[in-house]
Amino acid sequence: MNERISKYLVYAVGEILLVVIGILIALSINNWNEDRKLRIIEKELLYDIRENLIASSGELKNSITYNKASISNYERIMHYIKEDLPYDRSLDSAFSYFAYWRPPNFTYTAYETLKSKGLEIIQNDSIKNHITKMYEEEFPFISNELRAEWEAFQSIILPFVVKHILYINEQEAQPNDFEALKNNNEFKNIMGVKMSIRKNSIYIAQIKKEHVDELIRSLDAELNRE
Q1: Which helix H or strand E contains 110, and what residues bound it?
Q2: How does pLDDT run across 161-190, given as a tens digit for each residue?
Q3: Pairs from 81-84 (Cβ < 8 Å, separation ≥ 24)
Q4: How far is it, in rounded angstroms, from Cα 179 to Cα 90?
Q5: Which of 85, 105, 139, 175 lies at a CB distance of 3.0 to 4.6 Å from 80, suitable for a disulfide?
């Protein structure tokens, strides 16, 4: 009798163990499938962020190029003023830069999607922190710096343009009286401020572009990792 009970117990325990092992295997397979799905989503998000960053790097490059051109044109105008040279029609293009600048427009679409999915989906902590810093600190910092020129444009530059400069089109503008402008200290002060702000904007944009490009390279390495 005891032998039969022992056999039954062994059989029952064996059945239980098989069931438990089966459940564990099923859970393991399910977890593997879920993790695989998350890794696919992670890779797609990282790829989209990379594409957005490439676009943002291009925006910074265009901003740097435009602002460098604007400084060259401001310096050209100031050269004519300092040397007391007569107005030349070639200055029309230089004056067209007076009321314009080229701020970079950053794309946040992929980062917003990442936040909605949860930042923890990114396994590489270094890349996750780098992405977060870029979108939460560095891009907003650039936007805040550009706000200084926008505020100056609204309060000082636009009223001056309305009074003293005629815009023919986006590529051409002429002062109403260039000879009077030569002795206008307000104009000289505005030009000095604009050149200072532009040079600072270029400096910041160059640093941030290096940071963006560095993050792009890190993403390339991560996406190419097996």
Answers
A1: helix 109-117
A2: 889 999 998 889 999 999 999 999 999 999
A3: 81/181, 81/182, 81/188, 84/182
A4: 16
A5: 85
